[in-house]
Design brief:
Elements (H helix, E strand, L loop, with lengths): L1 H8 L16 H15 L11 H8 L3 H13 L3 E3 L5 E3 L10 E2 L13 H15 L2 H4 L9 H10 L1 H4 L7 E4 L2 H12 L5 E4 L5 H9 L3 E4 L2 E2 L2 E2 L1 H11 L3 E4 L13 H13 L3 E5 L21 E6 L11 E4 L3 H12 L7 H13 L1 H24 L11 E5 L6 H10 L2 E2 L1 E2 L12 E5 L6 H16 L11
Parallel strand pairs: 3-14, 5-6, 5-9, 9-10, 10-11
Antiparallel strand pairs: 1-2, 4-12, 7-8, 11-12, 13-16, 15-16
Helix pairs in contact: 2-4, 3-4, 5-14, 7-14, 9-10, 9-13, 11-12, 15-17
Length: about 475
């Protein structure tokens, strides 16, 4: 009691944040004010912060609010605790050769969305409503009834109302692709894909002893006449397509092309795996190929590119009940189930509207980042204005691997075209991912450095001698 009285009688702290009535969560306002004070020098490394109770009293807020603010500031590496001596401004973190990662396709952090709070609230609801024993035990795979209903709701923008029994829950799109290859093909079978395609397809096909054959594409995607020729020549077991904001080219296949490819696949009796992770990020995407050929198209939608990769949840639409059983048997051979806890969290977010709000924030942030890339890269920009990546064709004096190496030497990670080549040949291009750098200012700096690198010719190689 005497300790509390001495704190109340103490002089007000030298640093005092101002809280706005409509400025968002108060704990974030306090953390943001701390960050601003460190940035402008009002607070310096080693300065002692007011005790939490004293600051709460001075600001007329709950102690919990200040505790959350200090926790958030620690997460940002702004503060450090020194036991009984109190809380102090931390020394700046020294990063040796920090890498600006433009190589990984992850959703950008949406502005104004408190992801930590979203995670805590979602998990709290899951633990309050679910049987905790069921969250920590084995499941047969395919998801609970609630998870499948959530999957049907997630797919409703693409397909309208769906029978939830047709929707299967998987531990990510890569697992879904691998299970479909195992279920629908035999060793030695051919899988057709575009010349530049998702590297995970090649990895799974190679591991399982299947062969990928590239089918030519234009600015609208795979060419129908070449698909028909390849079907006659190779009798493929599957056709793999990523038709919306294609990875890596960012091409969105128009509706007519989708319809033509679906018709050819039906005529040639070949199944299509439609891997469509970016459909919900696109501004006005055409209907999925699975709407034109529902009987022989297997549709995959992952949450990794729209919400967060950590959920490890993807939904697969398989309409035929016998094919669903084959798919689940294949999936169980290497991934028994999606983790029940993260699947339940995904379901909670979808059903309570949190997923929709997070998706809207990701879309808005992605479009802001594309506008930035368009301004900085000028005539070289070839993105679609939405999605997570840009496909950048290079000037003749650079080749893709050479540029990737030079960029890496300057602390920038990009992905060269050969990483996506399905037939061993690749165009002279790189993929730039816009979401993996959290801070927009650091992303701008990375894009500017990359633009400067593109504008100059490569230096002759010379080995160092020591």
């Amino acid at each position: 009691m005497s300790q509390l009285k001495s704190m109340q009688d103490a002089d007000p702290p030298g640093w005092m944040p101002r809280l706005a009535a409509h400025g968002g969560p108060r704990f974030l306002q306090i953390a943001d004010a701390l960050q601003a004070a460190v940035a402008d020098g009002s607070l310096r490394a080693g300065d002692r912060l007011p005790p939490q109770r004293l600051l709460a009293a001075q600001l007329d807020v709950d102690l919990t609010t200040v505790t959350r603010a200090y926790d958030e500031a620690r997460r940002r590496s702004l503060l450090e605790g020194r036991g009984a001596r109190g809380t102090y401004v931390a020394a700046p973190k020294v990063e040796l050769n920090p890498v600006l990662d433009l190589s990984m396709n992850t959703p950008p952090p949406p502005e104004g969305v408190d992801f930590d709070d979203l995670l805590k609230q979602g998990l709290s609801q899951v633990l309050m409503r679910a049987d905790n024993e069921l969250l920590m035990t084995y499941h047969l795979g395919g998801g609970s009834d609630a998870d499948r209903k959530a999957g049907a709701r997630w797919l409703a923008p693409m397909f309208g109302q769906l029978d939830a029994a047709q929707v299967l829950v998987c531990p990510g799109a890569q697992a879904a692709i691998a299970a479909l290859i195992l279920a629908l093909t035999e060793p030695g079978d051919v899988i057709l894909a575009e010349p530049a395609s998702y590297p995970g397809l090649r990895a799974a096909a190679t591991q399982f002893g299947r062969r990928i054959v590239a089918v030519g594409a234009d600015r609208h995607g795979m060419l129908p006449e070449l698909l028909e020729e390849a079907c006659r020549a190779h009798q493929p077991a599957l056709v793999y397509l990523n038709p919306t904001l294609q990875n890596p080219t960012a091409v969105t296949m128009p509706a007519r092309r989708r319809q033509e490819l679906a018709a050819i696949a039906q005529r040639c009796d070949v199944r299509i795996v439609e891997d469509d992770p970016y459909w919900l990020l696109a501004e006005d995407p055409p209907p999925p190929i699975a709407t034109f050929g529902p009987g022989n198209v297997y549709y995959i939608s992952t949450l990794s590119k729209c919400l967060t990769p950590g959920l490890r949840v993807a939904f697969v639409l398989v309409r035929d009940p016998r094919e669903r059983e084959r798919f689940l048997a294949a999936l169980r051979s290497f991934a028994l189930m999606a983790a029940p806890l993260t699947a339940a969290l995904a379901t909670q977010w979808i059903l309570d509207g949190s997923a929709e709000a997070l998706l809207a924030g990701v879309c808005k942030e992605a479009r802001l980042r594309h506008a930035m890339a368009r301004d900085i890269l000028a005539g070289r920009y070839s993105g679609a204005g939405d999605g997570l990546h840009v496909w950048l064709e290079l000037p003749a004096y650079w080749n893709a691997s050479q540029l990737a190496h030079a960029a890496g030497s300057e602390g920038i990670a990009v992905t060269p075209a050969e990483a996506f080549a399905t037939d061993g040949a690749s165009v002279n291009a790189i993929r730039i991912s816009l979401g993996s750098i959290k801070d927009r200012g650091r992303l701008r700096a990375g894009l500017q450095r990359l633009s400067q690198l593109l504008a100059r010719r490569p230096e002759p190689f010379s080995a160092a001698v020591v």
